[in-house]
Specification:
Marvel; membrane; 211 residues; Synaptogyrin 3a; Synaptogyrin; transmembrane; 57% helix; two-stranded antiparallel ribbon; 4 strands
């Protein structure tokens, strides 16, 4: 179909409209993931360590340094990954090779799934260590807000990392559930349900093959 290239992106050389790109659900969710990762990272770095009558700093999560280090790692790498995939989404239509486009899509799917798991571990780990932290370990409730923010936004990040349809816009539940089939079969189709869908499986009633 006119204006639709492999994996649903615009044909090579097509003009990218920044406003249209910014309004896509994929872009909005990517920005939210970036913000949530920043909150997790900044909360622990800025207020995740306290000193109690000594120069030595202790992690606010039950004095478990591994908990703070893990939260910082997941937040920082998530922040950088969001920036990378944001640029990849924006430049996707300029990729001329179908194989390269497929690799980009699979990279996003694989990384998103993996980072969703790491954020799930982060949420469980931080919540567990926070529940074991005694009140006397945090005089005047130091770092409590930062701890709760890191835990809460780790949970929110699970949602924003698992929801996005890599390098495609979300248009319908059917296209979302069956996108893997479309990738495996290498079928490139345009779904009539939504003009911005990137990858959509065969659906005779609503989709037509991109010739």
């Amino acid at each position: 179909m006119d204006g639709v290239g492999s994996f649903g992106a615009g044909r090579t050389g097509s003009t990218i409209d920044p406003i249209t790109f910014a309004k896509q659900p994929q872009t909005i969710i990517r920005v939210l993931s970036w913000i949530f990762s920043l909150v997790v990272f900044a909360s622990i770095v800025n207020e995740g360590y306290v000193n109690m009558g000594s120069e030595r700093l202790h992690c606010i999560f039950n004095k478990n340094t591994d908990a703070c280090n893990y939260g910082v790692f997941v937040g920082l790498v998530g922040l950088l990954a969001c920036s990378f995939f944001f640029l990849l989404d924006y430049k996707f239509s300029s990729i001329s090779s179908v194989k390269d486009r497929k690799k980009a899509v699979m990279l996003e799917i694989g990384f998103s799934g993996f980072w969703t798991f790491l954020y799930f571990v982060s949420f469980c780990f931080l919540a567990n260590q926070w529940s074991r932290t005694r009140a006397e370990e945090l005089p005047l409730n130091q770092g409590a807000d930062a701890a709760r923010a890191a835990i809460a936004f780790s949970f929110f990040s699970i949602i924003t990392w698992i929801v996005p349809m890599p390098t495609m816009s979300v248009c319908s539940g059917v296209c979302a559930v069956l996108r893997v089939h479309a990738l495996i079969s290498e079928s490139v189709v345009s779904c009539g349900v939504c003009a911005t869908v990137r990858v959509c499986p065969r659906a005779p009633s609503s989709c037509t093959r991109d010739m």
